[in-house]
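Journal club prep — side note

Before the paper discussion, L.F. wants everyone to see what a predicted structure for a comparable chain looks like in C-alpha cell form. Sequence:
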Amino acid sequence: LYAGKTAQLAGPAEYTYKEVAEFVSDVISRRKPLVDVPVSVASTVGRLVEELVNPVLTRDMVAQMTENVLPHNNPEWLNITDLGIEPASMDRVSFEFLHRFRKGGHFTLVQGYH
C-alpha cells in the first residue's frame, strides 16, 4: 500500500533535542543534568562506541542529530493523516506515555489515594 512512497512525519512545532529532553524531564518529574556536548566530541565518542555490540551512539546518529527536520511542501509525499493517524501535539499526548516513568507512576501526585 505504501511501498515506494515517502511519508513526511514532521509537524508544525519545532523542538531542539534539549527542549524535548527538558520537556520529558518535567513530565516525569525527574531532574537530570543536561550537558551541551560539542559535535566534534560527540562524533569522536560515536566513532569509539559504534564498535560495541549494541552501541548507544554512533557517528551517523550524531550527524542525524545535527540536521534540521522541517516540513516540506511536496504534494507527492504522504503526511501523517494519509497514514490514518490523527496529529496531536506533544503537550497533549505526552503524559499518557510518560507517566509510567515517574517515581511511583501516575499515583505520585494524588493526595490521600493510599
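L.F.'s comment for the group: The mean pLDDT is 86. Keep this in mind when we get to the figures.
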